[in-house]
Amino acid sequence: MKLKNKIICCLLLAGCGVLRVEAQIGEHRNDFSVGFNAGYVLSSVGFVPKVNQKQHSGITGGLSLSYKSEKYFSTICSILTEVNYAQLGWKEDILDNKDQPVINALTGQAEHYSRTIDYIQVPVFAHLAWGKEYKGANFFVNLGPQFGYMLRESTDMNFAFDQRNMQDRVNPVVAQDTMAVSKKFDYGIAVGLGLAYSHPKMGHFLLEARYYYGLANIYGSSKRDYFSKSNHGNIVIKAAYLFNITRIKRKNNHQ
């Protein structure tokens, strides 16, 4: 079994183990909430051979669903999943050996190239929180696998491929410019840190910073392929709002 598959299996098994233990000794919850989220994505692709890049910017947003199952001592335990649209990709940093932009001889402009890859993403998180449960603020951690499927891709560039200024480029790797994504299915591990505010009548407001590391490649990675590695990596800043669908009433709902 490959290392990346082992990582996913370990996370899933660990999550199942935690839920089983807490189901036996934790304080039971049966709270289900739904809502929506939106945010900003900074992304890049981990190419080997290396491609010099800046952060590619895009948007993300979609549906959020949360099921709170247990409170174990001070830890509020939930499962959080999302169905999101996300704009990922890469933006090349085309420089010469003096770290200056490469100028195209035909246009007289600094060459630029970026690829935007649109995905449907489904993260499945163990959501662990500490603080006020029903009215007030808490701090939370999200951790779990994320799966994605490519919808489409588009390119933004200001030069013709056969008229690139290859003479001045410090990095000669350009094969990716003309290669369409060949692996549409993506998967990896995501971790997030955030703050939430809950109110029994208004619902839940969440603000989160999240990092995703892709374990899949967008191109073939065999010995006969050009790139041995081409995985996504991105940072997401997002806000979410969820409202309660079902909730067990308790005497101490202010906690």
Which class do the helix and strand fractions yield?
mainly beta
Strand and helix order: HEEEEEEEEE
Strand fraction: over 45%
Describe the global form: elongated
The whole-number mean of residue pLDDT values reads: 89
Could you give the order of strands across the largest sheet? 1-3-4-5-6-7-8-9
Terminal CA distance reads 45 Å
Computed over alpha carbons, the radius of gyration is 22 Å
The biggest beta sheet, please? 8 strands, antiparallel, barrel
Number of helices: 1
Which stretches of 5+ consecutive residues score pLDDT under 50? 12-24
As a percent range, the share of helical residues equals: under 10%
The count of DSSP E runs of length 2 or more, i.e. the number of strands, is: 9
Secondary-structure map with pairings?
Blueprint: H1 3-25, E1 27-48, E2 53-54, E3 56-72, E4 75-92, E5 113-131, E6 136-157, E7 185-199, E8 203-214, E9 229-246
Antiparallel strand pairs: 1-3, 1-9, 2-4, 3-4, 4-5, 5-6, 6-7, 7-8, 8-9
